[in-house]
Amino acid sequence: MKQEINPKDTNRGQAFELWMKSPMPMVTLTKTFAVRRLVKINHRRGLKFNMLLCWCIGRAASMVDEFYLLPERGILFKYDRLAINVIVNNSSGGINSCDIPYTDDLEKFNEDYLALTQLAATSCQSSLVDDAMVIGTSALTATELDSIVNQYTDQFCNPMVMWGKYRSRWGKVTLPISFQFHHVQMDGGHAARFLTALQDVINLLNPGISSGNDIHMG
After folding, report:
1. Cα angle value 85/60/150 (rounded, 5°)
2. Shortest CA distance to 86 belongs to which of 96, 72, 71?
3. What digits encode the pLDDT tens for the residues 101-159?
4. pTM exceeding the 0.90 threshold for the entire prediction
5. 121-132 residue pLDDT tens
6. Phi, psi of 114 (to 5 degrees)
7. Contact 84, 20 (CB under 8 A)
8. Is the pLDDT of residue 83 over 60?
9. What are the contacts of 88-94 at 24+ separation with CB within 8 A?
């Protein structure tokens, strides 16, 4: 569900006044993550690395209340659920946008991820979720990247998580991830808490799982 709310009734009231009309309201943080556990699950169980990371992003975001708020066209909205957007290469050589509803059930998220991305790839049509706060993602896995900065525009206020190819060096597997967010939605402290939670979620995944139902969070 999506509903308009008064910014003054939230902890984002002052930020709304300060940043809603800013010509460049987006902030980008970059952190290097240890992702060896995701690679193990990918290799052992055949679950896509990108899907696993998207689920972890949704799980970590669900722990931060500010992710359920989003400024749009001068209005602050509140949502009761999240979705993860992925960019899909389609059969015509272009790309489409695909929203995956987030759920704590990884098995269900995986089913939706596979079905919706396959549909987008073959139909060359985007699928959108209108009543969820959508976290955008962009995986540029053709090369290793240190950081990504997206366009700064008031036409797209959703948070964005971006990464390149993961790195395997001396037994360690790491991945720099860039996180871009609108300053009305959250402050740097909230963003840092999300990035810390994301690493924690990755660390808690069990490499020996046979299905999403076997994943447990501490």
Report:
1. 45
2. 96
3. 999 999 999 999 999 999 999 999 999 999 999 999 999 999 999 999 887 666 689 99
4. yes
5. 999 999 999 999
6. -65, -45
7. no
8. yes
9. 88/117, 88/120, 88/121, 89/121, 90/120, 90/121, 90/122, 90/123, 90/124, 91/121, 91/122, 91/124, 92/124, 94/124
